[in-house]
From TrEMBL:
The keyword Cell membrane applies. The lineage of its organism: Bacteria, Pseudomonadati, Pseudomonadota, Alphaproteobacteria, Hyphomicrobiales. This is Diguanylate cyclase. It is a multi-pass membrane protein. Gene3D superfamilies: 3.30.70.270, EAL domain (3.20.20.450), PAS domain (3.30.450.20). Residues 357-490 form the GGDEF domain. It is found in: Cell membrane. It comes from Microvirga ossetica. It holds the Pfam family dCache_1. Coiled coil: none annotated. SUPFAM superfamilies: EAL domain-like, Nucleotide cyclase. NCBIfam families: GGDEF (TIGR00254).
Amino acid sequence: MPAYLIIALSISIAAAGIIGAALLLVRGTNDDFAKAEGELANLALSLQERVDGVFQSIENVLRDVVGRIPQNCLQPHEFDGFAASQATKAILVGATHCLSQIVRIDLVNARGRIVGTSNPHPMADAIYLTDTSYYRALSIDASLLLYLSEPRRIPATGKKVLSLARKITDTDGNFIGIIVCTVDLAYFEKIFDEHLKTRLLAITLYRRDGTILAHRPKSERALGRRIWRPNTPLQRMIAKNSATLIRDVSWIDLKERLVALHPLANYPGGIAVSRPVAELMAGQRFEARLVRFFAYLMDIAVEAASLLGLRHVRTGILRAASESYLSRHDMLTRLPNRQLFLEELARTFLVSQRVGKDFALHLIDIDRFKDINDNHGHGVGDQIVQSVARRLRDRIRKSDFIARIGGDEFAIIQRPIRGRPQVLDLIAAVQAAMKVPVTAGNTEFDVGLATGVAVASTDGKTSTELMKSADIALYAAKSDPDSSYRLYDADIKDSRAERRALEGALKTGLDNREFELFYQPILDLATNRMWGCEALVRWKHPAKGMISPLQFIPTAEESGLIGPMGDWILQDACSTAMTWVHPLKVAINLSPVQFKCRDVFASVKKALSVSGLPAHRLVLEITESVKLTEEATSTLKRLKGLGVSISLDDFGTGYASMSYLRSFPFDKIKIDQSFVRGMDSPDSRAIIKATIGLANDLKMSTTAEGVETEEQLNALRMAGASQAQGYLIAKPMPREAISAFIEQTQPAHEAGRDEPVPERAVA
């Protein structure tokens, strides 16, 4: 048979099938409009929470800077001098580096002049901001504390920015000035781009008066204009400032759109998410099957070209296919990527609702993956990702779907399921897959996985809502030290709301001085006398009583409140140590977040200066989670130059303890309590002995944490540990109690002695 007849016959057969399928599609092209409304509303809510969080983080930074202004500087002349000082510039520069979305921070006096700035370039002339909307509003309206400006472009760079301005007042409420944060709008655009599943979806961040602050997809004429046309439903609904769904014609593309509005919770603005009504009525199923139609057509074209020997045609078609594959797959693991996963999740959701079969969504995250990358390099990290991908792929059924949706995050659509036991079976299989260590870069790693699971029938009415539920469950799993997985339920949802409430309570607690430092004695094993104390923060909540640091420190770090909290801890602990009748040392933990958003050296130096504590009496403890960048290492070296000792806390629990020790000349190693409590085990005893021997070789001292029995204490003394700390010696106690304890336990002749004692001399 001639080639052209073969091609014609093939195309005819395919066309007949396509026409038949098309006839079936016509009957079901109208998607459920209510589902579309739900998806838009959920996306608007999700983005509102995220944008609120971004602004909240920025405001926390501004609050922190304002909180560091001394009371005597909250006067017009004193404020100008304080703002212009080099110390304040260092504070502003450090605050700017806290968040990537911050471009610069300026201090503006009551006359509208910039008197302090994080901008590294000196100002040649006086710059006044009296013509800005935020200065006019904040200087005139006594009740207004915060202002969100209209967007603008920086002439020199073309960067789109807005200003978040906060009023500064004295103790009587008199206007002293403004702190202004310039925010990069590209940060919000990047967030929105993550959710642009189709080119017809539009996402807008607007100010309460309707001014467009950020818009995706890109539209140059939209920025700074009103989102609504005058006297339209959209204008009226935005004025009401409440979450709603409406239909209105957009002036940007002149299409009737279904719009989900959600105002920001704490800031004068909102989120609008919209899709054309025509597209919604057409339904997504038709588009999905149309893609398959082109795929079938492409297959026919490829075969036809092969039969005719038209290599250039075949090559072009295959190249197009390759590009399509690359855009929808992860090249490192060859798994589907996030784009293809989201499409498959939406399709699975529709099929599940149509046929009545349930499915589960598993989100899986590699534990401490950032530590591996930071300490061993991205090459090793890539090998671990590949190994995890292979093991997960081997554990699922053919009907299931797996994708890599982030750097260390995977997703599995388990379909269908017949109940909770089947979900638990897959979770167990996932955990079992990682029982054998992963070898990468000639090193074995015990890789753990955290899993969050949501079930379609109970945990989400839309694919977006289901994804959000699984993500909440994953966060709960990662936050739970006793479990590697969590299934979504109402309790987890409540805990997320509790975290938001906790952040607000933390701010109030800092303002109301609800935090208190307790001090746990540390025993010198050579002399059997007190060596010093570790300062431990406690929160005495007015309604809930004492709250564990394990509950509030992670929230403080995530929200940026650890900055002002850390400064207070330094100052209070140093001041308390100066009240002791014996010159004991005081040890203070530093959070890795403090190194990112604070000038740690300046904070420590200020605490020493204000308290009068000699530097050799201060020990700063850091863990391996503090990334020893060039800047962080320089800071630690400058602190050692002052005479401050640096201790490596929780030694032996990280991926890179040994390499970490080589990165910086620590004064002390703290042996983690998990090894001390496990001293009945030969392995733990061997690790402790090896650690002490290593410390001795490196001329470092050692402190063993968590000592609870005489047997542990004697074993540590025999092994050569320098100091011990734990409930056997003494529990943590408040300021007054520790002072009395020191007086009772220390020899009287040591009172008042405060000569410099090298850190290692006590060992």
